[in-house]
């Protein structure tokens, strides 16, 4: 029985250099195999890209939606005080 784990690609914003990479992956593998993780720390986006880092999470989600990303994970690494 195959469960399909190898068929899913998760792209985390923490390691993302630019949004063009997401476009390339969608073009290569199809939108149904892609999940983008919006990685946050204390409600701020974490990314290697300055352009992504300064977007709001909602703005990034809307941008990704326009790029045909249909599945998102929101991971908030908020520090408990």
How would you describe what is shown here?
The structure is a single chain. The radius of gyration is 13 Å and the shape is globular. Strands 1, 2, 3 and 4 form a 4-stranded mixed beta sheet that branches. The protein starts with 8 loop residues before the first strand and ends in a 5-residue tail after the last strand. The chain has helices at residues 19-29, 50-53, 57-66, and strands spanning 9-12, 34-41, 44-45, 72-76. It has one domain (8-76). It is built from 3 helices and 4 strands, in the order βαββααβ. With 81 residues, the protein is α/β, with parallel strands linked by helices. A hairpin with a 2-residue loop joins β2 and β3 (44-45). The model has no long low-confidence stretch (mean pLDDT 90). The longest helix has 11 residues, at 19-29.
Write a compact overview of the structure shown.
The protein contains three helices and four strands. The protein is an alpha/beta fold.
The value of Rg in angstroms is 13 Å
| β-strand number | 4
Class by helix and strand content?
alpha/beta
Head-to-tail CA distance between termini: 45 Å
The total count of helices amounts to: 3
Summed over residues and divided by their number, the pLDDT gives a mean of 90
Instruction: Please give the domain count.
Output: 1
Q: Which residues sit in consecutive blocks of at least 5 with pLDDT less than 50? A: none
**Strand percentage:** 15-25%
Helical amount? 25-40%
Global shape = globular
Main sheet characteristics: 4 strands, mixed
Order of helix and strand elements from N to C terminus: EHEEHHE
